[in-house]
Amino acid sequence: MKELKKEQLEDLYVWLEKFEMPQINRNVNRNFSDCVLLAQILKQLYPKFVDIHNYPPRNSTALKLDNWQTLNRKVLQKLGLSQSNESLDRLAKGVPGAIEHLLYQIMIQSNMDLQRNKIPTNDNNIDDDENIMIVNVSKKVGDALVQVPQKMILYSMYEQAQDEIAEKDRTIALLSQKVTHLENFLKLKSERIENLCCQLTGGGPSKRYFNGESVIVSHPNSSSCLSY
Question: What pTM was computed for the model?
Answer without folding.
Answer: 0.51
